[in-house]
């Protein structure tokens, strides 16, 4: 096979902010390979805000005059308007959001713009931009999670008297309340919100003023910068500050855990909505059909939530792999953090409201749910009946296992076994065994904290409502 030769086109590198050291040329292929403006331009607002704060800070120490600072701030405002209005024009040499903004600022105000980067590096600049952006993203994610939690609690209150089979190993296990199932996801989402709040605290540390790696040589007041940019603290070590992407990895880890919870919810509802279960019906607004089979109503919304979990995992694994072998401080490998971070955020920003819409509009089929309850699911209750008469649980388990086998052999349900049959397995069985064959009695016995009794479920609802009010 004939080899394919890649033609390398080169051009002068002098337009680059780092071009002074080079008298050679940069390959257009390398330029395309290294430029990040295509995706990091979404940091334009944070980058401009950070530059404004930095201009003020170096004015305070005499590196800029007040007039120069005013011109810079006015220029930054104009650039922000251009980005917002989609009139900002990218030009060759705009390799990232920092160089694009600086180039445009120079065009607008002239030489004063070239003073802005004094003591500052793109290393501490991008770390600052990312943290500012992530803090906003966290606030948005939390809002979506609280909306979903509201739906769970509201439905749990309204539908607290509905029973359905609980499953282990996808086998019918014990009767539970529908509200108990809903709340099981409520507590997961509460933990997701708590983890996100903890992440915000760690992300809320300002790297700006760390320079490339050694710090800032002009005694810039970093506490002033932190106040201007709404950070609660400053990074204590400049080398760590420009290298650290723990906050990105932690966000991707959080997103992976959260996505698992929504994927599990989606799987439950996909099963429950199938004709074999028919416990729930997904709204037309969140379903699609088949191009071939007219009768189909497919739970595509839930299937996509489930599948996008793998996409989130992939970004997390990819960035961890990129980070694991990096030496100290900044390396260009860190450019890979943004596409992973942005795509995971975008994925969740779509998925979380979809999940809220699916659950809030979901129709439950109470008759089908309660009709799926079978007496063999009360086998454990039969064992508890014997325990309450003094039989050790392991022995009671064995006796009831024999009862189940006898019922299957006779091809009758457990409740249809004669009292004489039961007594043949244990003399402690008596007429009061009839109380076991009641699904409401079954769920009501689980009244300890966290159980599926009406009292316990109401306690969970009250606890979550109180927590939502305190932490929203």
From TrEMBL:
Argininosuccinate lyase C-terminal domain ranges (all copies): 377-444
Fumarate lyase N-terminal domain boundaries? 20-314
CC terms in the record's Gene Ontology section: cytosol
Asked if Lyase is a keyword of the record, the answer is yes
One Pfam family named in its UniProt record: Lyase_1
List the PROSITE patterns: FUMARATE_LYASES
One GO MF annotation is: argininosuccinate lyase activity
Q: Which UniProt keywords apply?
A: Lyase
Q: What is its EC number?
A: 4.3.2.1
Q: Does the record's keyword annotation contain Protein transport?
A: no
Q: Which GO terms describe its biological process?
A: L-arginine biosynthetic process via ornithine
Name the family. Answer: Belongs to the lyase 1 family. Argininosuccinate lyase subfamily.
- Name of this chain's protein: ArgH
Native source species: Acanthosepion pharaonis (Pharaoh cuttlefish)
């Amino acid at each position: 096979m004939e080899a394919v030769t890649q033609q390398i086109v080169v051009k002068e590198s002098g337009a680059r902010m780092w071009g002074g050291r080079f008298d050679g040329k940069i390959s257009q292929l390398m330029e395309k390979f290294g430029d990040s403006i295509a995706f990091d331009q979404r940091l334009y607002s944070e980058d401009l805000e950070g530059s404004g704060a930095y201009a003020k800070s170096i004015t305070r120490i005499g590196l800029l005059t007040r007039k120069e600072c005013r011109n810079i701030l006015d220029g930054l405002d104009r650039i922000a308007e251009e980005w917002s209005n989609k009139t900002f024009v990218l030009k060759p040499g705009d390799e990232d959001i920092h160089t694009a903004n600086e180039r445009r600022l120079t065009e607008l105000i002239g030489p004063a713009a070239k003073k802005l980067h004094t003591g500052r590096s793109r290393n501490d600049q991008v770390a600052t931009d990312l943290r500012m952006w992530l803090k906003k993203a966290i606030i948005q994610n939390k809002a979506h999670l609280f909306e979903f939690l509201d739906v769970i609690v509201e439905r749990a209150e309204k539908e607290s008297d509905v029973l359905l089979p609980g499953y282990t190993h996808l086998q019918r296990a014990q009767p539970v309340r529908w509200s108990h199932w809903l709340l099981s996801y409520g507590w997961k989402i509460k933990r997701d919100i708590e983890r996100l709040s903890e992440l915000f605290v760690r992300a809320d540390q300002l790297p700006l003023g760390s320079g490339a790696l050694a710090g800032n040589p002009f005694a810039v007041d970093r506490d002033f910068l932190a106040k201007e940019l709404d950070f609660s603290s400053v990074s204590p070590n400049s080398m760590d500050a420009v290298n650290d992407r723990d906050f990105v990895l932690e966000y991707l880890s959080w997103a992976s855990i959260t996505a698992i919870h929504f994927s599990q919810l989606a799987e439950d509802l996909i099963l429950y909505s199938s004709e074999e279960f028919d416990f729930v019906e997904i709204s037309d607004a969140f379903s699609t059909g088949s191009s071939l089979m007219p009768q189909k109503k497919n739970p595509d919304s839930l299937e996509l939530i489930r599948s996008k979990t793998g996409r989130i995992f992939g970004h997390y694994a990819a960035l961890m792999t990129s980070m694991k072998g990096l030496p100290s401080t900044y390396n260009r490998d860190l450019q890979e953090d943004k596409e992973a971070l942005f795509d995971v955020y975008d994925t969740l920003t779509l998925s979380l409201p979809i999940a809220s819409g699916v659950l809030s509009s979901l129709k439950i089929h109470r008759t089908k749910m309660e009709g799926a309850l079978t007496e063999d699911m009360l086998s454990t209750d039969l064992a508890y009946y014997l325990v309450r008469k003094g039989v050790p649980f392991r022995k009671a388990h064995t006796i009831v296992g024999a009862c189940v086998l006898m019922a299957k052999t006779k091809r009758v349900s457990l409740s249809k076994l004669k009292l004489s049959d039961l007594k043949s397995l244990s003399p402690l069985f008596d007429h009061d065994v009839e109380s076991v064959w009641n699904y409401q009695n079954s769920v009501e016995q689980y009244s300890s904290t966290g159980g599926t009794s009406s009292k316990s479920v109401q306690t969970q609802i009250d606890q979550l409502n109180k927590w939502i009010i305190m932490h929203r």
